């Protein structure tokens, strides 16, 4: 696949994987992207997952014909992008390896060597001229590993963005970008909003026409759309006006309260109401929705003088990613000593710009007239 003049895609699709990074469900597989820049000197951009080394080398050889690469540029040392460095060295012993100082520190940990006779260490802002193509290295620490760097082809105006702007899903399956890119972002990069903001400031100084991430499709149209979403996500802004209701329920009574709230919100004209059973639905999808909407309702039972385990895990996932700038409503359930609201509020006490709804709904075992009245009041407040 031609990306631009002199730039060819040589990545692979993975339909064997079930869980990405051991936790994210990827029913549509994953893409591990790699690119070749053909010029007087030839650069390969990143490696692929360990299970696809032979396919990757085959793709490189098909792209190059009788030629051989001069450089392997390593932007990110996470194993799904670096696992075949040793295989590359074996196949192309004359090539040099380009990375930053931390890249080679990690490389030695993974492979037992940092290839001292091959390494080319670059610093932020350094350039590498291949002939017509001139590359500029843009460091992006903690997006989402400390050694991450990105590469701007000043000639082709192509930005190789490492894991930024990536998404779940193989490239031989057509899928809407934002949904799986959002789940990918908040699952993997979401904690590092400030660092992504720093990256966006650097990117704003570059004349970018194409973005080439390490996962997901090449982005070559409407780049403002993707940049705007990344700005919203990394600044913890609101993407969609509406309410997300996340609940756990033991015997169905808290579920009934959550569903009743959804009905009342919709009746009052709330533009969008999403709801999820945290015990049964994909946790990463729920985390994604919690960051997507400006208002969230946490509905859960009191459990061992705490909150139900799935709700506790969900809140921990949000806090780990710096959850902020949101309004939170609470529905608590407890037959004899409801404590969920108190526990939830305590968990967010160190979070930035969290506002709790004035109305807290307390369900004593089952939804009765008093609880329904409170649900009505909470709906009015949130809608």
Question: How would you characterize this protein structure?
Answer:
The chain is an alpha/beta fold and 383 residues long. The chain has helices at 53-64, 79-82, 85-91, 101-111, 177-189, 193-203, 223-234, 253-267, 283-292, 309-320, 340-347, 369-382, and strands spanning 2-4, 7-9, 12-14, 19-20, 24-25, 30-32, 35-37, 43-45, 71-73, 96-99, 119-121, 127-129, 134-139, 149-153, 158-160, 210-212, 240-247, 273-277, 293-303, 306-307, 326-333, 354-363. The chain has a seven-stranded mixed sheet with strand order 1-2-7-8-9-10-11. Helix 5 (177-189) crosses helix 9 (283-292) and helix 8 packs across helix 12 (369-382). It is elongated, with a radius of gyration of 24 Å.
State the share of residues found in helices, binned by percent. 25-40%
Our estimate of the beta-strand percent is 25-35%
Number of strands: 22
Q: How far apart lie the N and C ends?
A: 48 Å
Strand order of the largest sheet: 1-2-7-8-9-10-11
> Assembly state here?
single chain
Our Rg estimate from Cα atoms comes to 24 Å
């Amino acid at each position: 696949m031609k990306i631009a003049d002199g730039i060819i895609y040589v990545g692979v699709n993975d339909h064997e994987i079930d869980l990405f990074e051991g936790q994210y469900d990827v029913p549509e597989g994953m893409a591990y992207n790699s690119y070749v820049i053909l010029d007087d000197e030839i650069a390969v951009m990143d490696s692929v997952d360990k299970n696809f080394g032979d396919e990757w080398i085959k793709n490189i050889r098909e792209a190059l014909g009788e030629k051989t690469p001069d450089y392997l540029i390593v932007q990110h040392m996470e194993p799904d992008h670096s696992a075949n460095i040793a295989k590359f060295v074996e196949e192309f012993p004359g090539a040099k390896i380009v990375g930053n100082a931390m890249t080679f520190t990690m490389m030695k940990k993974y492979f037992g060597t940092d290839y001292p006779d091959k390494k080319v260490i670059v610093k932020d802002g350094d350039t590498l001229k291949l002939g017509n193509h001139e590359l500029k290295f843009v460091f992006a620490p903690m997006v989402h590993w400390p050694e991450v760097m990105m590469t701007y082809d000043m000639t082709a105006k192509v930005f190789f963005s490492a894991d930024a702007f990536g998404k779940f899903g193989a490239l031989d399956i057509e899928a809407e970008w934002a949904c799986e890119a959002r789940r990918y972002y908040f699952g993997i990069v979401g904690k590092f909003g400030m660092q992504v903001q720093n990256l966006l400031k650097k990117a704003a100084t570059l004349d970018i026409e194409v973005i080439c991430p390490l996962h997901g499709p090449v982005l070559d149209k409407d780049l403002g759309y993707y940049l705007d979403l990344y700005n919203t996500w990394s600044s913890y802004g609101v993407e969609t006006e509406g309410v997300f209701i996340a609940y756990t329920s033991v015997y169905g009574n808290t579920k009934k309260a959550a569903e009743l709230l959804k009905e009342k919100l919709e009746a009052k004209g709330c533009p969008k109401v999403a709801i999820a059973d945290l015990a049964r639905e994909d946790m990463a999808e729920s985390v994604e929705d919690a960051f997507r909407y400006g208002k969230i309702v946490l509905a859960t039972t009191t459990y061992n003088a705490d909150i139900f385990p799935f709700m506790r895990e969900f809140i921990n996932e949000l806090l780990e990613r710096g959850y902020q700038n949101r309004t939170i409503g609470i529905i608590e359930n407890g037959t004899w000593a409801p404590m969920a609201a108190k526990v939830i509020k305590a968990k967010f006490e160190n979070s930035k710009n969290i506002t709790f709804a004035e109305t807290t709904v307390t369900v004593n075992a089952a939804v009765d007239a008093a609880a329904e009245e409170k649900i009505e009041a909470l709906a009015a407040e949130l809608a």
